[in-house]
Design brief:
The protein has 228 residues and is of the alpha+beta class. The chain has 9 helices and 11 strands. The strands form 3 sheets. The chain has a 4-stranded antiparallel β-sheet. The protein has a 4-stranded antiparallel β-sheet with strand order 2-7-4-5.
């Protein structure tokens, strides 16, 4: 598999590293290039938590499945982002989630120990990569905290509106797109898909929002009573 320097430079793990240094750095880190077809599990729950993944193209999701077989999307990973790094850095023995390709995807896998331990060549980029990785892990933890605030809602409507308001704020616009289809959104919010569709229809009839597939528009700023 071939990939461009542009695909790598948009990854925050490589912030502050020149494109000319990337090939030597990847060789030093022992990066392995991989592909996964849509629907394939990249890293399976229960497998050793040792690799850091870098998504080059496609889309990857972190999926938690409970004892009854119910799926929850913990996080959506876009090109340039990392996956599995929090578990590997935390020295978790086994992955607690499945990492799943929701589109045809290309990615790199790097043994976390190769990143966190300076090599015998004392490469200048190593300290920078470690700093970047710690920053990414901290940011990812904040994202998981944000998701916890969303799923703490008492009703499907409250979870949905909390999520949509956060998305609007992030986009700085009443018009925005989300990275989920209906089933994906239901899994992310931890709600029933039919109940989610019913609430969306109600909010549309009430003039609170409009939507088409994954594109949304807030038509009015909801009050606390409207959300609950």
């Amino acid at each position: 598999m071939t990939f461009s320097a542009e695909q790598l430079t948009r990854c925050p793990l490589f912030d502050g590293i020149s494109p000319e240094d990337l090939p030597g750095m990847l060789s030093c880190l022992g990066a392995r290039s991989m592909r996964a077809d849509r629907g394939c599990v990249i890293l399976r729950e229960g497998s050793p938590a040792k690799d850091v993944g870098i998504l080059l193209s496609g889309c990857v999701q972190l999926i938690r499945t409970d004892f009854a077989g119910n799926r929850t999307i913990m996080m959506n990973i876009a090109p340039g982002q990392l996956f599995a790094e929090s578990f590997s850095c935390a020295k978790a023995k086994l992955l607690p989630v499945d990492i799943f390709a929701s589109e045809d995807s290309e990615y790199l896998l790097i043994d976390c120990r190769r990143i966190m331990t300076s090599c015998t060549h004392a490469c200048a980029f190593h300290s920078r990569v470690i700093f970047n990785l710690l920053q990414i892990v901290a940011d990812k933890n904040l994202a998981l905290h944000q998701r916890a605030l969303i799923t703490a809602g008492r009703s499907t409507r409250e979870k949905l509106m909390t999520y949509l308001l956060m998305q609007a704020k992030e986009a700085n616009s009443a018009r925005f797109s989300i990275p989920f289809d209906r089933q994906g959104l239901a899994d992310y919010l931890e709600v029933d898909r039919s109940g989610l569709s019913a609430e969306m229809s109600k909010l549309k009839k009430e003039g609170v929002l409009d939507y088409y597939k994954s594109d949304f528009r807030l038509l009015s700023i909801p009050t606390k009573d409207t959300i609950e």
